Task: structure prediction
Amino acid sequence: MSSPELPHDPAPQQLRARAVLINLLSTGLDNGASGLSSVPGLLRQVLEEGSWQHFITMRDEEVRHDSFYTFVTTPPLKGLGASEDLIRRLVGGDTGLHELIDRHMARPTGRPASSTTSGETEKTVSNRHGSRPAGTTQAAGLRKLRKHAPHLLPQVTAGDLSVNRALIQAGLRERTVSVPVSRPEKTADVLRRNLTPDQLSTLIALLARPRSEEE
Result:
């Protein structure tokens, strides 16, 4: 799902003003945590005004994007050269802004978005992070927390609780542990430390069953 096109092409002066806004946002993203104060407001403005869809860079290149995801991952000056994970981390606990990103962050399904410079069309770099960026799983976890356990979000955004632990605490994800299968004594030690007495009793009973009973 791509965001709707603007009803008409703005004047070149307005398109260049959009590029200034986008450059400010890109600089805020480059600054990492120190850009936290400026990124949310700039990002909201870029999304609400649709600035990312059509602008003219300081190199006088006219750029159009069909999806916000492509705009985010395309290198500057035609995009932000960032990842969804970075943007979401800098947005922090602003639930409304996360939802606004969700509405725009559609993956391109057809040909890559194109940028037009002096009447010529060239492909933008839409796959520099691969088909699925590293932050996608974490972003999905954050969306689940915002919907089902918003009370845990402040701890997550403050870094006191990981997304995984928050999901487990909210009962939205099962807790898992790794066991060294080549060392039974270590396996037993890990299970003793992570299972309740009742769970251990159930496990022992299950392990004592002949395989034919389980098949």
About this structure: The two ends are 45 Å apart (CA to CA).
